[in-house]
Amino acid sequence: MSLFVFGHRNPDTDAICAALSYTDYLQRTTRPEAIACCCGAPNKRTEFALERAGLAAPRIVMDVRPEVGDVCRRHPIVARRGEVFFEVYQRMNEHGIGAVPVLDDEGKLAGVLTLLNLLQLVFEGDTDPIRFRQVTTSVDKICQVINGEYQHVLDSATPSQMMVMVGAMSAEGFTKRLHRFEASKLIVVSGDRPTIQLPALEHGVRVMVVTGGYKLSPGLLHLAKANNVTVINSPLDTATTTMRIKMARQIDDAIDADGLTLHNKDTVADVRRSVDRSRQKLFPVLDDSGQLFGVLSKTDLVNPPRPKLVLVDHNELSQAVIGADEADIVEVLDHHRLGGSLKSSEPIRFINEPVGSTCTLVARQFRAAGLTPSPGIALCMASGIISDTLYLRSPTSTQTDRDCLDWLRGFCKCDLDIYAREFFAIGSALRSCTSKDVIREDCKEFTEQDIRFSISQIEEIGFELFWQRKDELLAALAEMAQLRGLEFSSLLVTDIVSNGSLLLMSHEPDYWEEINYPRVERHLYQLDDVVSRKKQLLPLIARLIASARGKQNPA
Hints:
Layout: E1 3-9, H1 13-28, E2 34-39, H2 44-53, E3 59-60, H3 68-71, E4 73-74, E5 79-80, H4 85-95, E6 99-103, E7 109-114, H5 115-123, H6 129-133, E8 134-137, H7 139-145, E9 149-152, E10 160-166, H8 171-178, E11 186-190, H9 194-203, E12 207-210, H10 218-226, E13 230-233, H11 238-246, E14 262-263, H12 268-277, E15 283-286, E16 292-296, E17 308-312, E18 328-334, E19 349-352, H13 358-369, H14 375-388, H15 399-409, H16 416-425, H17 429-432, H18 435-441, E20 443-448, E21 451-460, H19 464-484, E22 488-495, E23 500-505, E24 519-521, E25 524-527, H20 533-552
Parallel strand pairs: 1-2, 1-17, 2-3, 5-6, 10-11, 11-12, 12-13, 14-15, 17-18, 18-19, 21-22
Antiparallel strand pairs: 4-16, 6-7, 8-10, 9-13, 15-16, 20-21, 22-23, 23-25, 24-25
Helix pairs in contact: 1-13, 1-14, 2-14, 8-9, 13-14, 14-15, 14-16, 18-19
């Protein structure tokens, strides 16, 4: 099973570059099956970094919950419209299955057929002597099912409705009953009894089946040919032959065409309830084109496979890919606070250190293992460090970040000073994105003492564009808070040149007056020397919430 390496939702450059570079590390060391993934498309700066590094973006995966297509059985045994009971039953018995999907002539799903459906088909109308004798099939299928041979044959391939009569009575009684039915629809089954065969052939029945390995005499065969009667010689006794003929009935009338079908992209969680409630035994799984993808039974949902994940640049489930809570998280590589409800059933590797970038931790893994990164992977890691530390100017920067970036310089094929200027000059979110995309580009949700809120962050060169779009950004933040049920949503706009930020709030809680930073206007605060969401803004908000809760619940 693949191992998926994920950054957080709404990924920034550090999240995507860490996923790519750590995947490269894992593939070269212990996990060749590792695949880099992300929960959204890269932003403009990240696209620039990947293009300069010559790397493809990670696979975009928005949900890792197991899908029906992951647990269903591919290439199932199937039946086709027009097939008969005997051949389908033999196939089901051979493979030990109690139900099969049925396909039409174009390969589309026609329904589901169960063993019970087949038995009901054979014994259908057992209280109605006329209906009980009826079979819809072709003469060829009858001959095939009874292992017979033709003595004379006409129009054997066309299916039609026929009626079975067994010549096991007196000739007089048989002849009286024979004339009650239309000759062209009659199949007469008889052993070596010329007194039965003669009136049947004179009546011009559709098929004469001679059982017990016997054959018609030359005179009777001549009569059969004259009256256009097909003659089949069966090696079986009359009782077995008659039962086999009933088993030559087409399955079409027994197909359940109204059963529940599933889509291969449905999640297991979404279909579990409807599957559990259903009395159906087998569930066809279809793809986008309506073709049969596979089949699912209830037992397939008992213990579905769990995806295996490595989380980089985050450790909170609220920031992880959808479905992470149903996955096996085998490793975490991060530089943020511990939070959320991350749990594991077994010990995992958990690296969480106070450095400025997750890519710093990845670079250190390369150095410790004695691995030389390719120029592209080296620039990828350097880009993550440059982005998250504002090229080592952020207060989150550490000596470890500086050491790792210096080490990576030796493998990059460009001057990192020039590259950093180009990187920050590319892709202003305020210049190229809608207001909704701006606040979602690098957005993280947090929970402090049961209060849920979000902080988005963008880096710009100056605040000119922000002032032009402030009102629409405020409206987008308010809408996000309402849709996600958050106490508030906020946007930290950081000026790379001045190393200061503006904080725009969708809503200012009562305790916000204690923020101790200048309020520029309603919903907007000036945060000089604040550039880090992780190390500066988030701890500040946590203290404000803790202080407010302490006042509400004094000891």
